[in-house]
Amino acid sequence: MFLDAPSVERLIEAFRKLPGVGKRSAERYALHLLSAPEEDALFLSEAVRTARERVTTCSICCDLTETDPCALCTASDRDRSTICVVERPAAVMAIEKGGTYRGVYHVLHGALSPLDGIGPDELTVGRLMKRIEAGGVSEVIVATNATAEGEATALYLSRQIGERGIAVSRIAHGVPMGGGLEYADDVTLSHALQGRTRL
User: Fold this and answer.
1) What residue numbers bound the domain in which 89 lies?
2) Which residues of 1-37 are buried (b: 16+ CB within 10 A; e: fewer)?
3) Domain count, the chain
4) Domain CATH for 32
């Protein structure tokens, strides 16, 4: 059968490595590429190759960038006294879409997970601490995910940074806009109640 061909199996496995892509989706992507005009498939492979060659991590904030330092770190209108710490580059994109945060970022490229062998040395925690020790930082906003690993990372960072006399805050977690309370899980409701603000 066609799907048993080693080259096709390899292509399907490559697609399965993408987040949120299961076996059936990977098969559909592979079949689409193999059925598409050759120039479309080559365009995709060339785009991936070019991006991998040109994109690197910013030497300051560790976000993905084509220029080093990145545009956010060199922007004159950003507040360098506030650093928002996130797990992944996708979080920077999400916060920037909101358009309200005017500080700078630091990307950890993961979260603490001792069971998986991921400690502070496997993340960019050391580079964050060097930025803080260089001076000029008054607040660090910890915006790690609301997972066990994200919470452990937030707690670790708050202790490490708090020892240096810098204010540490945690983003609020709760019920999303437009969401009903009856659909929220227990942990989300607990965070929403603890992070309540006065009207």
Assistant:
1) 78-172
2) eeeeeeebeebbeebeeeeeeeeeebbebbeeeeeee
3) 2
4) 1.10.8.420
Q: Which helix (H) or strand (E) holds 97?
A: helix 89-98
Let me know: does 58 contact 33? Beta carbons within 8 Å: no
Based on the domain organization, do 47 and 88 belong to the same domain? no
Does one domain contain both 28 and 88?
Answer: no
Q: Where are the beta strands (DSSP E) in 27-72?
A: 56-57, 64-65
Per-residue pLDDT of the chain (199 residues; tens, 9 = 90+): 566 789 999 999 999 999 999 999 999 999 999 999 999 989 999 999 999 999 999 999 999 999 999 999 999 999 999 999 999 999 999 999 988 999 999 999 999 998 899 999 999 999 999 999 999 999 999 999 988 899 999 999 999 999 998 999 998 877 777 777 677 777 777 777 777 766 5
Do the domain assignments include residue 16? yes
